[in-house]
Specification:
The complex is a heterodimer.
Chain A (H helix, E strand, L loop, with lengths): L2 H29 L9 H18 L5 H15 L2 H20 L6 H18 L8 H15 L6 H22 L1 H6 L4 H18 L8 H4 L3 H4 L8 E8 L5 H9 L2 E8 L3 E8 L2 H11 L1 E9 H13 L8 E7 L2 H12 L4 E5 L8 H10 L4 E5 L6 H10 L4 E3 L5 H9 L7 H13 L2 E7 L4 E3 L2 E3 L4 E5 L2 E6 L2 H12 L6 E6 L7 H10 L4 E6 L7 E5 L1
Parallel strand pairs in A: 5-6, 5-7, 7-8, 14-15
Antiparallel strand pairs in A: 1-3, 1-4, 2-3, 9-12, 9-16, 10-11, 12-13, 14-16
Helix pairs in contact in A: 1-2, 1-9, 2-3, 2-4, 3-4, 4-5, 5-6, 6-7, 6-9, 7-9, 15-18, 16-17, 18-19, 20-21
Chain B lengths: L7 E6 L7 H4 L3 E4 L2 E4 L2 E4 L6 H10 L5 E3 L3 H10 L5 E6 L7 H12 L4 E5 L5 H16 L3 H14 L1 E5 L4 H5 L16 E8 L2 E9 L1 H15 L6 E7 L3 H14 L4 E7 L2 H7 L4 E7 L3
Parallel strand pairs in B: 1-2, 1-6, 6-7, 11-12
Antiparallel strand pairs in B: 3-4, 3-5, 8-9, 8-13, 9-10, 11-13
Helix pairs in contact in B: 3-4, 5-6, 8-9
The chains are: A alpha/beta, B alpha/beta.
Chain lengths: 536, 287
């Protein structure tokens, strides 16, 4: 072979490898969870091969060794990311071997080239890990060595190696826990097989079929790596005749995200994150019969998911929280705050719906932790909480919070990896540091500092004592805030009750009177108190 | 070999957030990482400065991604430093970036043993402060052994604490490490974070920006001392007012210590920490 024909061949092969990688770049990005789940393996491999393509497009090497040198150098210079650096070593191993030969590429030379690639790649990594690009490369070399003795056209050999590579990639989740937990195959290995698929296609002149979908599409678990604003992960299978995949997908898109609808006309698997799993199931029963329904509360899954994302082993929760909370919005705030760092069981109740000791004991009984901290969040619940703590089968501490905002302030410093006593001490301090107030309707006529408040008027309270009243909600609430800010405070939390009056007037007045104050408004949903306030 | 500023170069990557390094010392260089915004791949601190970056971040809905320098980028830089007999190449934690790997590969490719690539196990001004400590030794004359010992001590004794406006950027970039469990809260909970063993780790949670600032102020009071040789650094991402406030506090509370760096987080670190990040660094160095 002349240098000229070598160069033409290499240009064609690199172009084909690049095209194959380009077309699967996004899919490979999505697979990327190891070593850093930043979703750029496909991009990095593509950019690395593009650097080689650019170099050979303009190269004028004198002979085969010079061409091999130029290719290896271009790969190294252009290597992007961890996967690109490893690929550059693979390219170097192949190029060095091919440069030593003066003949065409036969099975024996292919085997030596892949072995050279594998050795170079392993040398490049300080702690080689199985289930990655490295082990896929090594398995390709081993397969090529098994076939080295038989005469076989290069094209057919490459096609067989692609098949073998696909199997090796499919096995990566068995070799590497983080892949199995994320439900994906190794991104670097998958990229390497795509590169090889492009080479095989160029040599045989026939485009090889794409990777089998089952082995490469990220499963629902991988999708969970993306944070979702929806609460329920809903999975089911729809069976029927002539199912309309696109139609069902379009309908489901209206009610959630992280949507996957896969299958054929007789069975579709649906995965969706939604706040309304009932609506998703109705869409399913509208199309066919449903089965295999799984609905999971993702806020409970969140901690596990994030630990998976962070690649650290899961930590047993030492102490959990049992909190008495009124209002759906408040319940969500408590759950979100606690589940990020531990675990919680919320018991509904509050001012006029005090839970029983038995209800608290039941919650303590199902708490997934060794110890417990109880947040009564109401003065009237404190005694019941203390009784429950005494009778509980696990060590339990009561932090005597008297309001929802105080309970939230306590939860901010909660850490599930610590024991209950340590948590309780720090949480009690945080709860004491928050000033709390509320706005409600006066249930009878009262007189306050000479001001007559009629039954039905707005009544503002701080620490249970009336401080303001009248028929102007914004004015009463503003007066409450003024009392809460008697000491310097940085953050004001407003929790609106069910059927709250508009807050625009209040928020505007606060912004102009206290420009430094960070004001946060949440829909708490508690009964009786249109507004709960906490300043810390 | 006796090492000095005349025969030893220091190469940083752009995550050290010291784009003017070569202007500060003739033997210093910076190799940029890349920040990718949409289809554009820009050299951190060369093609895009922090002001431009945060302005673009406000406009675009696309999260930027980042790429490490290629071994070729490092090789070009090392070659340019031909006149130096030793090159200390200091890089962002290998737990969060492959930059150190690229530098090592380039050093091996060079093949003359001049390059010592170091995984600093930290980020931002904390890398630059190690470089400054090495430079102090180079200027009075030092050895590889002394620098090795300094690097080892730095890894254990350097302190840093930072707060981010939201964990979303760390989470999107996959660099959230053990702080992952802090994510996903509805209330404006500000995480207080550090870096340990090369990874982002949680310290505590507080409500609101002011209280987060108060945590940094408290770290200044309890973790640092007011004495000569105490080095301090500040970094911020699009938060100049709060950085200035922290600077005033440091100068007021630690008049005898040296505030050696106040830097803006560049595009790459900014891509992972997000606007609103504020950081305090410290290291006690008798030089």
């Amino acid at each position: 072979m002349t240098a000229e024909s070598d160069l033409e061949l290499v240009r064609g092969l690199v172009g084909a490898a690049l095209a194959s990688l380009e077309s699967s770049r996004a899919r490979i990005d999505d697979l990327n969870v190891y070593p850093v789940p930043d979703g750029d393996t496909g991009t990095n491999l593509t950019l690395t091969v593009r650097a080689v393509a650019d170099a050979v497009a303009s190269a004028e090497p004198a002979d085969r060794p010079a061409l091999a040198q130029a290719v290896a150098r271009a790969a190294l210079m252009g290597a992007r990311g961890n996967s690109g650096v490893i690929l550059s070593q693979i390219v170097r191993g192949v190029a060095d071997t091919l440069a030593e030969s003066t003949n065409g590429i036969d099975p024996g030379l292919t085997a030596r080239a892949l072995r050279g690639a594998s050795d170079a790649a392993y040398r490049a990594v300080r702690r080689p890990v199985e289930g990655t690009m490295l082990s896929v490369t090594r398995e390709l070399a081993e397969e090529a060595e098994r076939r080295a003795a038989q005469p076989e056209p290069l094209g057919e050999l490459l096609v067989e190696l692609v098949r073998h590579g696909e199997e090796a990639v499919a096995r990566t989740p068995e070799q590497l826990d983080v892949l199995r937990e994320a439900g994906v195959v190794d991104a670097g290995g998958a990229g390497l097989v795509e590169l090889l698929r492009g080479l095989a296609g160029a040599v045989t002149g026939e485009t090889m079929p794409a990777a089998p979908e089952a082995a490469s599409a990220p499963g629902p678990d991988a999708i969970h790596l993306e944070p979702s604003r929806f609460r329920y992960c809903t999975v089911f299978v729809v069976e029927g005749d002539g199912l309309d995949r696109d139609g069902l997908e379009a309908q489901l898109e209206q009610i959630g995200d992280s949507l996957v609808v896969v299958g054929d006309e007789t069975a579709l698997k649906v995965h969706v994150h939604t706040d309304d799993p009932g609506a998703a199931l109705s869409l399913g029963t509208g199309a066919g019969t449903i089965e295999g329904v799984e609905i999971a509360n993702m806020h409970e899954q969140q901690e596990q998911r994030e630990q998976r994302l962070s690649l650290v082993p899961s930590v047993r929760v030492k102490s959990g929280i049992v909190a008495v909370v009124a209002g759906e919005g408040n319940r969500l705030l408590f759950e979100t705050l606690a589940e990020a760092v531990g675990t919680i069981r919320v018991v509904s109740g509050g001012q006029t719906a005090n839970p029983s000791t038995a209800e608290l004991l039941a919650a303590l009984g199902v708490l997934d932790a060794d110890e417990a901290v109880i947040l009564p969040n109401n003065a009237n619940v404190r005694l019941v909480a203390e009784q429950a703590a005494e009778q509980a089968e696990l060590p339990a501490e009561v932090v005597p919070t008297e309001s929802i905002p105080a309970g939230l302030a306590a939860l901010v410093v909660y850490d599930g990896t610590r024991g209950a006593a340590e948590n309780a001490a720090e949480m009690a301090e945080a709860a004491t540091a928050v000033a709390t107030g509320e706005v409600t309707r006066a249930s009878r006529d009262v007189s306050l500092s000479g001001l007559a408040i009629r039954s039905g008027d707005w009544l503002g309270l701080v620490d249970g004592q009336p401080v303001a009243g009248g028929d102007d909600f914004a004015h009463v609430a503003f007066e409450v805030v003024s009392h809460l800010l008697a000491e310097p405070r940085a953050v004001l939390t407003l929790l609106t009750g069910d059927d709250p009056p508009p807050l625009d007037g209040l928020v505007e007045r606060l912004a102009s009177a206290h420009p430094e104050l960070e004001v946060e408004v949440h829909e708490g949903g508690q009964p009786h108190y249109p507004l709960l306030l906490g300043a810390e | 070999m006796r090492l000095s500023g005349a025969n030893t170069a220091i190469v940083l990557d752009s995550t050290a957030d010291l784009p003017d390094a070569a202007d500060r010392f003739p033997n210093w260089r910076v190799v940029p990482l890349y920040v990718n915004i949409g289809d554009e791949s820009l050299r951190d601190g060369v093609d895009i400065d922090p002001t431009e970056f945060y302005a673009r971040l406000r406009e675009t809905r696309v999260f930027p991604t980042t790429s490490q320098p290629t071994p070729g980028d490092f090789l070009a830089c090392y070659r340019e430093l031909d006149a130096y007999e030793r090159i200390y190449s200091l890089h962002v934690s290998a737990r969060v970036s492959g930059t150190f790997g690229s530098a090592e590969a380039a050093g091996a490719e060079l093949g003359d043993g001049r390059v010592r690539a170091i995984d600093t196990e930290t980020a931002s001004a904390s890398i630059a402060m190690l470089a400054l400590a090495i430079q102090r030794r180079l200027e009075r004359g030092t050895s590889d052994e002394e620098i090795d010992a300094l690097v080892e001590r730095y890894r254990h004794e350097r302190g840093l604490i930072f707060t981010v406006d939201t964990l979303e950027f760390l989470q999107r970039g996959g660099r959230i490490g053990k702080a992952a469990a802090f994510a996903g809260t509805l209330l404006q909970v500000k995480p207080i974070l550090s870096i340990a063993d090369g990874e982002v780790v949680p310290v505590k949670r507080v409500r609101g920006e002011r209280n987060a600032f108060a945590e940094l102020a408290s770290a200044l009071e309890t973790r640092t001392r007011d004495e000569p040789g105490f080095q301090l650094g500040i970094a911020h991402a699009a938060a100049p007012e709060r950085a200035a406030e922290l600077e005033a506090l440091v100068r007021g509370r630690r008049p005898q210590a040296e505030l050696e760096l106040v830097v803006a987080l560049g595009a790459v670190i900014g891509s992972h920490a997000g606007p609103g990040t504020l950081a305090l660094f410290w290291f006690h160095d008798d030089g």
